[in-house]
Amino acid sequence: MVEPGERVGADVLTDRLGYLLKHVQARLAEESARALEPFGVSGRELAVLAVLGESRPISQLEGAGRLGVDRTTMVGLVDRLERRGLVERRRSEQDRRKNVVALTPDGEDLLRRAEEARRRMERAFLEPLGDAEAERFVRLLRLLLNDGGSR
Amino acid sequence: MVEPGERVGADVLTDRLGYLLKHVQARLAEESARALEPFGVSGRELAVLAVLGESRPISQLEGAGRLGVDRTTMVGLVDRLERRGLVERRRSEQDRRKNVVALTPDGEDLLRRAEEARRRMERAFLEPLGDAEAERFVRLLRLLLNDGGSR
DNA sequence: TGTCTATCGTCAGTCTTGCTGACGATCAGC
DNA sequence: GCTGATCGTCAGCAAGACTGACGATAGACA
């Protein structure tokens, strides 16, 4: 991705939701990559860890559903985390078709530290909006995802 | 892309800016594809047309810069639009290394009609926010792109 | 009990999107 | 008129995600 063009007032591009979302997201992805680089995980991998860490162990498919990724994509995600010793797969006792995926102690530890870095990065990213507007912004995004999705 | 997971209150995922932006953008991309399908152009192709239509003819590279795409990507974009008879390349008189790209009458016409459809789609997309919040949302996005980018 | 269908994890293949590196043509400075 | 930069093009590569198929397992039902 290349830097967006020079700024122009009310603009044929910055009037487009698609353009705005895409480029804002691209900038966040960059910041995120920079912030997580010391931990050796991508933003998505961290999200996987976060989902796995939030409650009881869940199956691969369940995790994929929570994250909104395809189950075939989840295979590779878990592969990589397992290779790094951050998660463990084991066959479910209740349903032996399922892989239950759980954090290892290393995984727990990395999750905690990387989440802290992510939160710092997000605060910095939203800083130009000011606190009140930043909070509102996140709320509106959430609203679009929930209300829009269930229409 | 798969539908995001079930809604849960304050959430390890919907607290993530990355997750929110990515999925909101994905939903918009779907809506956009649906809205533009009758016109046979993608959202990005329409953005190209819009940039080309907004002022004097510009070079391919200049257009790429405005759009924030790589110049090699621009080749393919213009290729496709030219094949469909929506734009015309010609060698610049001033600098014969440059391709000046201009809308054809067909291109102008399609631009007008498709832009109308896009605006309708965006209004519907933002509808859950209400008018005032929708406007604010766009303003905040613009702010993030501009202020963040120049830091 | 045995059969039939659905589910889960996996893999191979494919498509899309974007980038890198190289090339020829052209320009601009000297 | 050289020399180094710029522009458009192309081929090749890499990441991300999806499709379709497969084997293993589970659950329903006769």
TrEMBL record, chains A, B:
Location of the HTH marR-type domain? 14-146
Transmembrane regions: none
Q: Does the keyword Ribonucleoprotein apply?
A: no
Show the GO MF annotations: DNA binding; DNA-binding transcription factor activity
| Top-rank taxon | Bacteria
What keywords does the record list, in alphabetical order?
DNA-binding, Transcription, Transcription regulation
Q: InterPro entries per the record?
A: HTH_MarR-typ, Tscrpt_reg_MarR-type_CS, WH-like_DNA-bd_sf, WH_DNA-bd_sf
A matching Pfam family: MarR
* PANTHER family membership: TRANSCRIPTIONAL REGULATOR, MARR (PTHR42756), TRANSCRIPTIONAL REPRESSOR OF EMRAB OPERON (PTHR42756:SF1)
Q: What is this protein called?
A: MarR family transcriptional regulator
What organism is recorded for this protein?
Actinomadura logoneensis
Lineage of producing organism: Bacteria, Bacillati, Actinomycetota, Actinomycetes, Streptosporangiales
